[in-house]
Amino acid sequence: MLTSQRKQLILQKLAAEGQVLSKDLSEAFNVSEDTIRRDLRELSAEGLLQRVHGGALPASAATVTFAERKNLRLDAKRVIAKRGAELIEPGQVVMIDGGTTTAELITFLPHSLQITVVTHSPSIALGLADHPLIDVIMIGGRLFKHSLVAVGAAAIENVANVRADIFFMGVTGIHADAGLSTGDYEESCIKRAFSQKAAETIVLASPEKLNSASAWVIGDISLINTMVVEENTAEHLLSPFIAKGITVIKA
Q: Residue 39 and residue 7: Cα distance in Å, rounded?
């Protein structure tokens, strides 16, 4: 079998099963695990999968530029964001991460809602400028232009002084076993810091993020309490999260 044929079959198996193991692939193709690891390394370099210990997971499609991500599955993001906005109660302190799905979330906040929003995203802050009853507290730091958020030591230090009711965490990958991930190291650090200061952490899990992974781990799936997904999301995709105690809300 040609290497290109084997790689194509690996990708087909990954798409069908959501995960591949090097040992199983080695036995299935009757080649060494070193050969399989080389295949996975090359496929990862092409952005076609995300290598993890012992195998690979689907690579998240949510790691392209902010402008490109903005229109990726926009219909699904809006439905999920609307349901997420309904989880906010008046008087709460709400931390909102940067991202294209959270950008949709704030469009569904009524002008009569009185809350305090803490964010490290200038675009989220500007999007709430015309909400008269929403106090906005900005977390400052170095601007990470790929995601248009503040990152770095100063940002994490400021997060330490917050106690919030809810944190809407943006991720590029969410997987029951591989956990929560994103495409940048410093982003992973500040997301983890935010989650540690919230009574409840929610992920708005648009389809391209579900059961996929990116290079930098934010933390175990236990960091979050709730995930909001599309109504038509297959039950077999959600059952591993439910088994781990995550509340799944369908939008």
A: 6
Write the DSSP symbol of residue 210.
Answer: B
Give the pairing type, strands 142-144 and 179-182. Answer: unpaired
Q: Global pTM?
A: 0.84
Domain regions of the chain by residue span: 3-58, 66-250
Q: Which amino acid is at 190?
A: I
Q: What share of the chain is helix, strand, coil (3-state, %, to 5)?
A: 40, 25, 35
Give 21-45 pLDDT, tens digit per residue: 999 999 999 999 999 999 999 998 8
Report d(CA 72, CA 1) in Å as an integer.
36
Which element (helix H / strand E) includes 185? helix 185-195
DSSP letter string, 123-151: HHHHHTTT-TTEEEEEPPSEEETTTTEEE
Q: For domain 66-250, is the CATH number 3.40.50.1360? A: yes
Quick one: pLDDT at residue 71? 54
* pLDDT tens by residue, 125-184: 999 999 999 999 999 999 998 888 999 999 999 999 999 999 999 999 999 999 999 989
- Arch. (CATH architecture) of 3-58: Orthogonal Bundle (1.10)
Query: Is 111 buried (19+), middle (13-18) or exposed (0-12) by CB count in 10 A?
Result: exposed
